[in-house]
Known about the structure:
It is built from 3 helices and 6 strands, in the order H-H-E-E-H-E-E-E-E. The longest helix is centred in the N-terminal third of the chain and has 24 residues, at about 1-25. It has one domain (about 1-140): Thiol Ester Dehydrase, Chain A, CATH 3.10.129.10. It has a 6-stranded antiparallel β-sheet with strand order 1-2-4-5-6-3, covered by helices on one side. The protein is α+β, with helices and mostly antiparallel strands.
Amino acid sequence: MRVAEDFAAEQADIERHLAKLEELASGTFWSELGCEVVFAHAEKAAIRLRAEQRHLNLIGIVHGGVLMSMLDNAMGLVVMIACREKTVTAGLNTHFLESAKSGNLVCEAEIMHRIGRTITLQATVKDEEDRLIAWGSGTYRIVSR
């Protein structure tokens, strides 16, 4: 019974934190890009983007910068929930594996390693057919205590 109560309290705390982050994100690059949270907790998160004409490059596929932004935003979301401190992206590695033209893209991110003020994560972007579009890893640094 106590475990269920602790879990419920933790979930409620995460939801309050997500609501605060959503409020802070209004008018920022996050909202301009058009991402939405699918789920998020201190170890893993997923975001979704409905790829539209504005997300495409000149050859009609989703721009690599959009995919990199999704990777960075999903990993950053996990870090913000896990740390509750100001963090910055220290490094971002991206591998473009397939192209996407439009439709829903989902990016899932998870923590791989944490030591001191540095957190390393990995993330994937998949399309509606569950094809792996991009894979990336990121290193994030806590900048305040």
